[in-house]
């Protein structure tokens, strides 16, 4: 069980290594999202290269992601998977909302917990 960066909502994340591709399953209320499992290491590597705080920029798939944010990187053709880490079309966004608390829980990143405009950086 994790909480969103502002601490306003709880959600469940777990690994499903039997999925194709291996996935991180994210259950938010009655909605289930999925992200490629490799996103954990790829995001951590990217954050290390940034060398400082990066804004999260969480956005739904249908909304554009602000440049330079975790959300934008999670959709970028320049990331290691060449696009979306999200696995379910229509529900591929919110990478910048749900992945950062997981990296924090795994001890890979530091995350701000303000009401809005949170940032993260690699540890």
Could you explain the architecture of this structure?
The protein is α+β, with helices and mostly antiparallel strands. It has one domain. The protein is 22% helix and 24% strand. The protein contains three helices and seven strands, in the order ββββαβααββ. It starts with a strand and ends with a strand. The model has no long low-confidence stretch (mean pLDDT 97).
Architecture blueprint of SSEs:
Elements: E1 2-3, E2 10-16, E3 23-28, E4 31-36, H1 39-50, E5 54-55, H2 70-73, H3 95-105, E6 109-111, E7 119-122
Number of helices: 3
Whole-number tally of structural domains: 1
The averaged pLDDT comes out at: 97
Give the topology string: H per helix, E per strand: EEEEHEHHEE
Task: Based on Cα principal axes, name the global outline.
Answer: globular
Strand order of the largest sheet: 1-2-3-4
Percent in helix: 10-25%
**Uncertain segments:** none
Instruction: Report how far the terminal alpha carbons are from each other.
Output: 21 Å
Most strands sheet:
4 strands, antiparallel
Descriptive terms for the model:
123 residues, alpha+beta, 4-stranded antiparallel beta sheet, 3-stranded antiparallel beta sheet, 3 helices, 7 strands, 22% helix
TL;DR of this structure?
The chain has 123 residues and is an alpha+beta fold. The chain has helices at 39-50, 70-73, 95-105; strands spanning 2-3, 10-16, 23-28, 31-36, 54-55, 109-111, 119-122.
């Amino acid at each position: 069980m994790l909480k969103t960066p502002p601490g306003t909502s709880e959600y469940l994340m777990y690994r499903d290594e039997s999925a194709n591709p291996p996935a991180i399953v994210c259950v938010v209320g009655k909605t289930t999202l999925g992200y490629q499992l490799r996103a954990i290491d790829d995001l951590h590597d990217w954050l290390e290269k940034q060398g400082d705080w990066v804004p999260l920029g969480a956005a739904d798939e249908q909304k554009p992601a602000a440049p330079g944010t975790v959300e934008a990187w999670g959709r970028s053709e320049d990331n290691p998977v060449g696009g979306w880490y999200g696995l379910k079309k229509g529900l591929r966004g919110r990478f910048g909302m749900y992945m950062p608390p997981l990296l924090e829980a795994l001890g890979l990143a530091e995350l701000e917990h303000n009401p809005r405009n949170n940032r993260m950086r690699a540890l």
